[in-house]
Design goal:
It is built from 16 helices and 9 strands. The protein is an alpha/beta fold. It has 3 domains: 144 residues; 71 residues, no CATH class; 225 residues, Rossmann fold (3-Layer(aba) Sandwich), CATH 3.40.50. The chain is elongated. It binds 2-acetamido-2-deoxy-beta-D-glucopyranose (NAG) (7 copies). It is a single-pass membrane protein; Single-pass type II membrane protein.
Amino acid sequence: MKFLNILSSKEKGMAKQNVNTKLKRWRSVYYFIFILGALALLLSVAAMFKFLSFKSFLGTESLYSNLNPEVPNENQNKVMMVTVELVIQKIEEELNKLREAKQDPSSSQTVFQQGAFLADILGLLESAASSHQHSEGNNKQNGSFTIHHPLVSKKKQSDEPADYFLREEIRKYVRIKPNRLGKQNFMGANASFTSIGHTCFAMKEELEEYMDYDVGEICNDDWKLAQKLMVHGCDPLPRRRCFSRAPKLYSQPFPINESLWKLPDDRNVRWSQYRCKNFACLASNTTRKGFFKCADCFNLTNHEMPRWVSLEADSNYTADFLISEILGIKPEEIRIGLDYSVGTGTFAARMREFNVTIVSATINFGAPFNEMIALRGLVPLYLTINQRLPFFDNTLDLIHTTRFLDGWIDFVLLEFILYDWDRVLRPGGLLWIDSFFCLKEDLYDYLKAFKMLRYKKHKWVVVPKLDKDDQEMFFSAVLEKPPRPFR
Ligand SMILES: *[C@@H]1O[C@H](CO)[C@@H](O)[C@H](O)[C@H]1NC(C)=O
Ligand SMILES: *[C@@H]1O[C@H](CO)[C@@H](O)[C@H](O)[C@H]1NC(C)=O
Ligand SMILES: *[C@@H]1O[C@H](CO)[C@@H](O)[C@H](O)[C@H]1NC(C)=O
Ligand SMILES: *[C@@H]1O[C@H](CO)[C@@H](O)[C@H](O)[C@H]1NC(C)=O
Ligand SMILES: *[C@@H]1O[C@H](CO)[C@@H](O)[C@H](O)[C@H]1NC(C)=O
Ligand SMILES: *[C@@H]1O[C@H](CO)[C@@H](O)[C@H](O)[C@H]1NC(C)=O
Ligand SMILES: *[C@@H]1O[C@H](CO)[C@@H](O)[C@H](O)[C@H]1NC(C)=O
């Protein structure tokens, strides 16, 4: 609106200036005013066109400009759209007047030329406006943090993700790679489609830093950057063609009868990105430099040993169950499973003693959890919460989760995760929710989310969490996935 005001005052100014000099050259006042109006409009159109061209006209760079935090917010967009529509309307009015003027035999050549020019500009403006509207339609979220997937965008814009990135290694990675013989491969695809998480486009700078390496050389020690990208949704990350860094000296891990309950050799971990520089530091009560939710997880003897095999004395207020108790629900049936937790793999270590194979999904929050699990002789699964589980439907006997999905998690995300767990659990499989905690006032909603699964309840316990002034509650349950016959 401001924009139009400026223009109209400019128009008036021009009119005043020019009245005396130009009046004589034109036969009628009508034509004079009309041409001046057209000129002013041309100016405004040119200015507007320039403005628009930055946002939605030119090539691929503008395509992704909406990913940029500097992009005008929804309000500004609206103002711009209103302005553009006004300009379009004015040009249309002017064109109508021009058409009338053409019928007047006294009209000059300039009138025709300007009519043609105006019509041209009008077409461009309208197409710009419609493409802008389209992109706004995609943009239902908040202006400042909206993401445009390049593959969802349309027309004028290239649908090649490779065109968005400058670094050649990313471009090479995301490009579709046709099969060498030009035929379908044994998987039924005629090309390979390597993919990256769509949020990678919003983290262009970090991703390009991550992909800045020399092919065939040693990679930077940048797993932390990689994890940051993954946690923020750039997941999957592109692969790289450099050799990952390793600890300087890797000593042979302990044999399995020892490794399960012994702190590993410090030399087998790259410590540069952690505050602690050895396992003793992580295990020590006094430093607390690991991950706050798992401050004691590296203290194997005192903290980890008793978990799931013995209960604390005050067992009236516990949300803990014993492994023997849970396996007793389905004797001989539980063989494989997933532990979706934060921890050092103690659950998997214990389950191993019961001849159950557990993979432990965790990422490295402030401590080398994956390295620790692997050095204990267990299987770490490096997985963020953003990812669909890499298991097929109806395959696992057990899913156990603790200290990970707690009262911070969004309800909608929790539902997506629960349905994903349900997908990979086999009928008759067990879901063990272990000490889920949340604020008292949220408890009802969270319980509703778990009830939504309609599983058979083997155990269902809600107890107050005693360390936080009764503000929080613990919830534990063991639930069984029902059979779902085809219909
Ligand atoms: C959306 O953005 C406005 C300001 O632009 C902010 O006040 C509001 O909290 C945001 N909403 C969400 C859901 O992020
Ligand atoms: C792959 O197959 C699709 C149809 O299934 C076809 O449109 C496409 O051109 C093929 N691509 C290559 C590289 O042959
Ligand atoms: C582990 O097993 C090896 C050989 O099987 C044995 O020599 C060693 O004593 C065992 N260690 C422990 C702590 O039991
Ligand atoms: C584990 O914790 C106990 C006390 O809770 C402490 O005495 C012991 O030293 C810790 N273990 C290690 C390896 O620091
Ligand atoms: C270690 O932690 C336990 C409980 O986590 C506590 O009882 C004990 O006093 C702590 N020891 C030291 C030395 O801080
Ligand atoms: C636990 O509950 C039982 C009965 O409900 C009671 O007899 C016992 O004293 C309680 N124990 C504690 C430590 O509160
Ligand atoms: C685990 O398997 C071994 C060898 O098959 C067997 O000796 C052991 O009793 C089993 N342990 C349990 C808890 O079932």
